[in-house]
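To: structure subgroup
Subject: Chain for Friday's discussion

All,

I'm putting the inputs and outputs inline so they're searchable in the archive.
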Amino acid sequence: MKIKFARLIAFIFVIFIAQNSFAQTPLTNRQIYDFNPGDVVQGTHFYKFEPGPPTYETFSYLKRTSSKNNDTLFYKIRREYYTPPACQDCKPLVWIDTITQAYMELDSIAKHYNETFQYSIKDTFFNDFCNRRVWGQQPDKLDSMWFEPVKHFTYFVEGLGGPFYLKEFSQGRPTKLDFVLTYYKKDGVSCGNFVNDVQDFNVQNLQATIFPNPLNEKATIHFEKPLTNGRIVIFNFEGQIIKEFNNIAGNDVVVLRDNLPSGIYFLKVENNGKSSTQKVMLQ
């Protein structure tokens, strides 16, 4: 009887260790960007530079394909951006487009792009968003040699993408930049509160694919229809223009990273009154 009891205790201990170990495993790109047609993910941008409503970014996944070696996933995505009116007489800011997004290095551990250089970083693992697995990185201990640090918490959600983040600057003024997951519908299961008002959206049909994304030194932008007099603008989350290219023609354009630091940027393409904006990650 004592032997059986000891075996039972040992079995429970092994199961506990296995579950805890599983919960503490960083997520790969394949686990994070595992979408199916019909999935919807909505994140909310809060810009605290000045008072105003948030911007709701909605990704609706329309089609999924993979490369022959199954090392790259391609998604056709309908994107909707909606900012409610900031005053009674104001108009909402709305636009919509359709893009093709490629995800590479699927079996590699995802990169957080956490900018909290002054802190030591610790991993946090938990279940949230209707029990979806979450992997976050947040500041651990403050380095007393630094003054007014940047606090930057980033996280990925299994099957729902990322990185999402909460970012606070303390240099001289209280400034916050947040992009948090607020709603998803995945495999018929919904969680969160969905916000949408697309009746005023203007459809923009300029479809572009950035490859690779994330990128290291350069990226190729492929357009389904050739540009004739295109313009490409790269800007950061603060809305500052980092680079600008004009008078672009053809189906493919190569963009060099140059000295841009690692992080997340937006790349906007304009051509003959149509435009497309994509999020770009620099490793």
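Points worth raising on Friday:
Helices lie at 2-23, 29-32.
The first strand starts at residue 40 and ends at 47.

D.
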